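Quick start: what a row looks like.
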Amino acid sequence: MTFVCFLWFYDRKIIPATIIFVAVAGGWLLVCVLMYRLGYILHPLWIPPAVTVVYVFTVALNYIRAAAEKRRITGTFKRYVAPEIVNELLKEGSDALGLGGKLCEIAVLFVDIRGFTPMSEILEPPQVVEVLNKYLTLTSSCIMSHGGTLDKFIGDATMAFWGAPLPQDDHIFKAAKTALDTVEASKDLTDELHERFGRTVSFGIGVHCGNAVVGNIGASVRMDYTAIGDTVNTAARLESNAKAGQILISRAVADALEGRILTTSLGDSIKLKGKSDGFEILTLDGLAPVAPGEEAVSPKPSAATA
């Protein structure tokens, strides 16, 4: 009986565990009374103390396991995502992590600093680090303020994605808005650098959306929570072709945000490695204006929510 109770109590929430504990302990006392009336004597203290010990032990064990799980989730994601997303992950538990990789519909953003290498050649090493840290802080702040997952820094580039580790409403728009806000926020920093060093730098950004494998990927001694696949590669190639201050997006992004953003089509004038002719690229010029008294265009449902 006590072993069966242990199996039930283990990994249970406190309320159902307590209900079963009371039912077993009280039920045994009731059985003892009924058997006594039938002429059989059962010791009333056989089961309740044992079940109580098992109940207390498993409650403590479950608490320790939950605390360890909370620390593991927090430690894994606090560097990558906004605090509110970490809180949602804690509510979902380890099942929401999809460790080892799962296929997700995401929007990917790459942003790189244009003109940083020439500037770094005229600056002292501490100044180079200072400038780089200012720009990486700017990009990461814009990403997290829009609920993005900060994947990694690659030299003077930043990679982020939306739609994982948890599904997000309007994740493609969040990525596009982040790109626009990053360019806008960089203007003050650009002016500061021009005043201090006589040179400026700016951003080139690429945004694409689609399916990718997201999870902890790497070796047993070094793993990163990241996204891989053609969607990621395409976003990186869009960014590598973007001019200073330019945001390049794919037709998939433009279609998903139709009526909500302003774009200029470049057709297939830019050839991306691995993409056949006809892959359309557009510049993201801004958000579509909303007339007074009108509501903003609602987002189209994504494949993940349709």
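That is the whole record. The beta strands are 102-114, 149-154, 157-162, 202-219, 222-228, 247-250, 261-265, 281-287. Residues 47-77 form the longest helix (31 residues).
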